[in-house]
Amino acid sequence: MSRRLRRFSIEAIAVLASIVLFWVPLYFVVLTALKSPQEASLMNLDWPSKIQLWDNIKEVVAVRDYMLVRAFFNSTVLTVLSILVLVVVCSMAAFVMQRRKDKASPWISFLVLAGLIIPPAIVPTIWVLNEIHLFKTMTGLILVEVALGFPFCVMLYRGFMGAIPREIDEAAVVDGYGGYRLFFTIIFPLLQPVTATIIVTSSVNIFNDFTNPLYFFPGAKNATVQLTLYNFTSQFVSQWNLLFTNILLITIPPLLLFLFFNKKIVAGMTAGSVKG
């Protein structure tokens, strides 16, 4: 088998796998969201006899006193504030880790890397949040999301900063720039590619997070978009048409984000890996 034929075979397998793993489930979600309750209960790939998407959307939005609208607001606030903190804190931490070389640096790098490996502990985290009076609060949940995303974002920033010459820092210090002014005026604007990558990938992860809001931000008024899926499932009755309509509505924002910023994600990831 020639190299070109082998390469084509691998690409064909990859495309086929993406179709099976992504597009078929997405098609099933859209198809079920178009159906009536009776047809949706059959859970098949048949085209509906009558499209009821708009009726399903109105019912989903109105259920439980417009809980989905509150959930979108909560998820948006959570995502925006978490991303702001992640970008500022992680970029500053990565800058210090990249530039500073002393005996503590390897240990700090090890602890950051360990954050990618060690799984989060739910019960101790709840105890800590409760002791500092941040359990069941948006602030506490934001801190949890920032802590979980910190290692990945720091490693991306640190790898990208490896290509920024130290001479820029030295020249700025000679010109009288202090630490914060040096970073935010000169270094931070150079981080736009990797910042765009972190904003998009972390936004999708936080917006789609199910576990952390469930444990650390309980309550009907505190629901995020993923928790609204509970509205249409129970032990006895499952409203499949409404459930999949809800899934479709909360899938659209992250999907559009990926479609519009796909090139920026790839560029930022590639630049960070090569330059690090």
TrEMBL record:
<keyword id="KW-0813">Transport</keyword>
<protein>
    <submittedName>
        <fullName>Carbohydrate ABC transporter permease</fullName>
    </submittedName>
</protein>
<dbReference type="Pfam" id="PF00528">
    <property type="entry name" value="BPD_transp_1"/>
</dbReference>
<comment type="similarity">
    <text>Belongs to the binding-protein-dependent transport system permease family.</text>
</comment>
<keyword id="KW-1003">Cell membrane</keyword>
<feature type="transmembrane region" description="Helical">
    <location>
        <begin position="107"/>
        <end position="129"/>
    </location>
</feature>
<feature type="transmembrane region" description="Helical">
    <location>
        <begin position="141"/>
        <end position="161"/>
    </location>
</feature>
<keyword id="KW-1133">Transmembrane helix</keyword>
<feature type="domain" description="ABC transmembrane type-1">
    <location>
        <begin position="72"/>
        <end position="261"/>
    </location>
</feature>
<feature type="transmembrane region" description="Helical">
    <location>
        <begin position="12"/>
        <end position="34"/>
    </location>
</feature>
<dbReference type="InterPro" id="IPR000515">
    <property type="entry name" value="MetI-like"/>
</dbReference>
<feature type="transmembrane region" description="Helical">
    <location>
        <begin position="240"/>
        <end position="261"/>
    </location>
</feature>
<feature type="transmembrane region" description="Helical">
    <location>
        <begin position="182"/>
        <end position="207"/>
    </location>
</feature>
<feature type="transmembrane region" description="Helical">
    <location>
        <begin position="71"/>
        <end position="95"/>
    </location>
</feature>
<dbReference type="InterPro" id="IPR035906">
    <property type="entry name" value="MetI-like_sf"/>
</dbReference>
<keyword id="KW-0812">Transmembrane</keyword>
<keyword id="KW-0472">Membrane</keyword>
